[in-house]
Amino acid sequence: AQKVTQAQTEISVVEKEDVTLDCVYETRDTTYYLFWYKQPPSGELVFLIRRNSFDEQNEISGRYSWNFQKSTSSFNFTITASQVVDSAVYFCALSEATGANNLFFGTGTRLTVIP
Amino acid sequence: EAQVTQNPRYLITVTGKKLTVTCSQNMNHEYMSWYRQDPGLGLRQIYYSMNVEVTDKGDVPEGYKVSRKEKRNFPLILESPSPNQTSLYFCASSLEGVAFYGYTFGSGTRLTVV
């Protein structure tokens, strides 16, 4: 069965600090896809990144970076030099190639960046 | 602008009064889906549709109905709402398989059933 665990329910950091949001997943499929979404206070869900199980390269996009490690079934998200606008709930999600209609979400991590 | 549009954004209703939340996408996407978001539970899929007239249950379908008569529209129907259906609902669409494209989400509908 598939499962996504975000053990950090809430994190608070001071502006300009770096912060890492953890995501651990479980799946029996060898082909799967991992996602991160951001939910700002306004409530919408914003796509951040998609990564397939065959691509273990880390990715960097501006202040955001993602560390995918199949050996530990983790797909962690780091924000460098955090800003107040980063305050949001962040969701990690998993999609299996065999069940291509569903995204299985973690419970989310609420990040608060304090000015 | 490419988007998924849900209406209404906010809804308060009474137990047992039938309601419909509308969802429309303008991207010609094949896949559409409904999720509910609850504190501590993340998002869970209610129903999905892979094309017109093709729908199936997700993880939490009890108490909900859907239809897909046109490609762009995917309404969520609560025939007899109950307080445990108080939640934040999201409609989503995807070009083809979600695994390849992920979902594009609507802005959400916050439903309160009293």
- Oligomer description: heterodimer
**Low-pLDDT runs of chain B:** none
Number of helices of chain A: 0
Record field, number of beta strands of chain A = 12
Structural class of chain A: mainly beta
Note the run of SSEs of chain B as H and E: EEEEEEEEEHEE
Helix and strand succession of chain A? EEEEEEEEEEEE
Query: What fraction strand of chain B?
Result: over 45%
Helix content of chain B: under 10%
Largest interface: A-B, 23 and 29 residues
Average predicted confidence as pLDDT of chain B: 94
Class from helix and strand fractions of chain B: mainly beta
Approximate helicity band of chain A? under 10%
Walk me through the structure:
The complex is a heterodimer of chains A (115) and B (114). Chain A has 115 residues and is mainly beta. Chain A has no helices and 12 strands. In chain A, strands 2, 5, 6, 10, 11 and 12 form a 6-stranded mixed β-sheet that branches. A 4-stranded antiparallel β-sheet of chain A has the order 3-9-8-7, with no helix packed on it. The model of chain A has no long low-confidence stretch (mean pLDDT 93). Chain B has 114 residues and is mainly beta. Chain B has one helix spanning 98-101; strands at 4-7, 10-13, 19-25, 31-38, 42-51, 54-57, 65-66, 76-78, 87-94, 104-105, 109-113. In chain B, the strands form 2 sheets. In chain B, strands 2, 4, 5, 6, 9, 10 and 11 form a 7-stranded mixed β-sheet that branches. In chain B, a hairpin with a 2-residue loop joins strand 5 (42-51) and strand 6. The termini of chain B are far apart. Chains A and B meet through strand 5 and strand 10 of A and strand 4, strand 5, helix 1 and strand 10 of B.
What is the secondary structure topology, with strand pairs?
The complex is a heterodimer of chains A (115) and B (114).
Chain A: E1 3-5, E2 10-14, E3 19-21, E4 24-26, E5 32-39, E6 46-52, E7 59-61, E8 64-69, E9 74-79, E10 88-96, E11 104-105, E12 109-114
Parallel strand pairs in A: 2-12
Antiparallel strand pairs in A: 1-4, 3-9, 5-6, 5-10, 7-8, 8-9, 10-11, 10-12
Chain B: E1 4-7, E2 10-13, E3 19-25, E4 31-38, E5 42-51, E6 54-57, E7 65-66, E8 76-78, E9 87-94, H1 98-101, E10 104-105, E11 109-113
Parallel strand pairs in B: 2-11
Antiparallel strand pairs in B: 1-3, 3-8, 4-5, 4-9, 5-6, 7-8, 9-10, 9-11
